[in-house]
């Protein structure tokens, strides 16, 4: 086939993880899978790290090496690997696109990935955030770090200082709103469309709550 004049070379494919990294990924997944299965069978409080380790065929110290607390097994999962690409996609949205439209697009993509690839796990995590205070508290702590990363993306799009009060309030309002949408989804038995609930949360952040009855 003849070369196309002026065409840009195709980007290199990402390098395949080495043997050591692949082993780490398999171990993390084995621990997560064991924890989710046990929690489904006997509940969160009745599931111990020792039980998770036995089912995953690793030692309890290995579990703690990958996940500092039992809550971390629930609040950090395979979707965390999508955080960086999704934030990069947010930063790459058209410059003239309204910021809230860009956020909606990326949030819908994140929800689509979660519900398409691991729907049962996504529902279980939402239910545990609703029912287990320790899981909910740990998720809020984790989202603080996500907020700092998102603030950098907002700053890149708006030219504002990521450390400014305005950016921090906007970002944490967004994250808090999405967390509340997740809890609402679980409260109502996952019957409503998760992406639509995220849209409604963004609407409230942008416009405030709807006017009450006079």
Treating each run of at least 4 consecutive H or I residues as one helix, how many helices?
10
Low-confidence parts lasting 5 or more residues at pLDDT below 50?
1-14
Tell me the strand percentage band: under 5%
Order of helices and strands: HHHHHHHHHH
Strands, count: 0
**Structural shape:** globular
Subunit arrangement of the protein: single chain
Average pLDDT, rounded to a whole number, is 85
Main β sheet profile: none
Q: Specify the structural class.
A: mainly alpha
Task: Bin the helical content.
Answer: 55-70%
What's the end-to-end separation, in Å? 71 Å
Rg value: 20 Å
Protein architecture, described:
- The protein is an all-alpha fold and 214 residues long.
- The protein is 70% helix and 0% strand.
- It has helices spanning 19-42, 49-56, 60-66, 70-75, 83-91, 99-117, 119-131, 133-158, 165-187, 194-207.
What are the defining features of this structure?
mainly alpha; 10 helices; disordered N terminus
Report a brief summary of the structure.
This protein has 214 residues and is mainly alpha-helical.
């Amino acid at each position: 086939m003849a070369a196309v004049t002026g065409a840009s070379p195709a980007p290199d494919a990402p390098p395949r993880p080495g043997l050591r990294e692949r082993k780490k990924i398999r171990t993390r997944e084995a621990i997560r899978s064991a924890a989710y299965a046990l929690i489904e069978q006997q509940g969160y409080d009745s599931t111990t790290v020792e039980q998770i380790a036995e089912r995953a065929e690793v030692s309890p110290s290995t579990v703690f090496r990958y996940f500092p607390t039992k809550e971390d097994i629930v609040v950090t999962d395979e979707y965390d690997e999508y955080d960086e690409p999704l934030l990069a996609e947010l930063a790459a949205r058209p410059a003239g696109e309204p910021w809230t439209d860009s956020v909606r697009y990326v949030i819908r993509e994140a929800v689509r990935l979660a519900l398409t690839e691991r729907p049962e796990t996504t529902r279980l995590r939402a239910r545990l955030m609703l029912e287990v205070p320790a899981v909910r508290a740990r998720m809020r702590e984790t989202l603080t770090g996500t907020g700092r990363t998102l603030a950098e993306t907002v700053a890149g799009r708006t030219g504002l200082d990521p450390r400014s009060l305005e950016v921090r309030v906007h970002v944490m309002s967004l994250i808090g709103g999405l967390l509340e949408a997740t809890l609402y989804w679980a409260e109502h038995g996952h019957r409503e469309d998760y992406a639509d609930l995220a849209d409604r949360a963004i609407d409230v952040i942008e416009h405030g709550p709807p006017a009450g009855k006079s």
